[in-house]
Request: fold
Amino acid sequence: MNSYNNKKNNTALLAAICTGFVATTSLKTALSIGLAASIVLIITNLIMHLFINKAPNSMLMLFYIILTAFITSIMYLIFQAYFPDIVNELGIYIPVLLFTISIIVQIFLHEKKYSILNILALSIGFILILCGIGIIRELLGGKYTAILEAPAAFIITGFLLAILSGIFDKDKKTA
Amino acid sequence: MKIELKWTLILVVLIVICSIITGVVYGALEDKIAENNFETKDNIDITSLLPEADSLKDLDIDIPEDSKIRSVKGAYSNDELKGYLIKVDSEGAYSTISIAIAITNEGKISGIEILSQNETEGLGDKIADDEFTSRFKDKTAKTPLTLVNDETSANDEVQGISGATISAQAVVDGVNAAIEFFNTHLEGGGN
Reply:
């Protein structure tokens, strides 16, 4: 992974993860939202390959928004058709989450050198952290219902970030 | 200016293409989605509402076109009619509330269940909780029920939910439609 050591960018990524907290009450929903958001990001950026160096800079965000909205709607339709139990659990949050996460990550990517590898690495990290929180909340949630409340996700993330930045170098904080 | 115009046109074309693809995908998945909604709506366990019965059978009854009644089924235990399961759609504050009502042969509501609703989260959606639906249990299905704010004093009263009057009223209306149907078509209607 390249240098992810810009503090401002890390904050943007953290905002994207915080949006995903809604889905982290169990591993299943966390994994599905993580995967779906990654797919939206990857397809959007693959299509954006056509425009990124040609379109005027001021219009890039419009293209991003339209493509993200488009892929998000299709993902939601697929969810409704093939994963009804996840739709029952999250409902309208699915498209809301996917769209918000993708746009926030897009802002993060906008300032970086564009590469599909970057996005892949980022997606994997994103899925891992959502699943991590999902597993912890699902396991502890059975004993302490407070873990299933929204604020617990922030506390768990705080601990996870502390552990991660303890393990890795301080510059390589891959949130 | 020239470049901007060119890219604006490209953007518009992109929007049109995206819309068309979304439409095509929806067309392809429409049946599947409808099927899923159907499953979650109609898969209910009759024994949870009417403990004596164990199976449901379709009845040969004409349902009035303009009524709230969606379907009526007979609840049987070993071919013996124990009661009826009536499904109604009632307009709530923001959504259509779909309710299943089980009425016994003796004309008593043995239980109701909210099959689907999309009311305000935290307020209106309390109608789907057991705490509210259990208030309909053992009410007589002779006269329409009324919604009251305080503790109930008569058998035809149901205590509402504070902050969710419209949603609760919609459920009561739905149940009343089922009661009326039961009294006019089922109980004395030759079945």
User: Anything to note?
Assistant: Chain A has one domain: 7-167. The two ends of chain A are 12 Å apart (CA to CA).
